[in-house]
Predict the 3D structure of the following.
Amino acid sequence: MGSGLRTGTGYGLRAGTDVGAGTWPGSRLGAGPDAGAGFESGFGPGTGPDAGAGAGPGIRVVLVDDHPVFRMGLSILLETLPGVTVVAEAGSAEAAVAAVGACGPDLAVVDLHLGDRLPSGIDAIRAMLRVRPGTAVLVLTMLDDDDSVFAAMRTGARGYLLKGAGPGEIERAVRAVANGEVILGPAVASRAVAYLTGLRSPGAAPVPLPELTVREREVLDLVARGLDNPAVSRRLVLSQKTVRNHVSNILAKLQAASRAEAVVRAREAGLGGA
């Protein structure tokens, strides 16, 4: 392949050798200056996705963050933890999926904001878990709004921390999530529990169709009022393409076969009123 993928013999790196059939990458994909879509990996003995029982216990981690300096610092931190090995790093959703497929990690630590497509980290989590359902996902992000927390957990993340978390908190979360537990940082835990139970705060009214984001509920409310996509676009000051995407997501999340069925669900939940 001519995409900048290089591999070494054994477990070291040797530049300039194209990967061919039958090679196992101790590799760097797209490691040059235009490497935004590539991932970097470095396997040691017994750390590949097909490593046998002789590899011993440990947590094999893929880091997904589009800020190289933050990713480097987190990698250094995790490598100091006993039994934790960073097997690959990725700076985009596409590279994250490739890294998980190639490395078969126990854990992926994922930012939700990957480049300009927000929340591209949600798309990355969904795609990574399709490729390897057994990989646990810990979100480590600056996004602390209810919709981001809810969407990440529904997509399959088992943990959610903010980037202000300290080293001890990150270590606890890495080990807990890799062990199959669910963990939320203290800054989001109480709000996440309230959101997941359908309440914004004690005594507040239940949130209708909580599986939808705030924006998706706004779109569905207007659709249930009888507005077509161009009218919804004008009302919410969104492009028609964005409205179509929201409607498509709404149908998928509600498992509605048609727009009319989604409207019925919306009105049953109290949306679309006068």
Notes: The chain is about 40% helix and 15% strand. The radius of gyration is 21 Å.
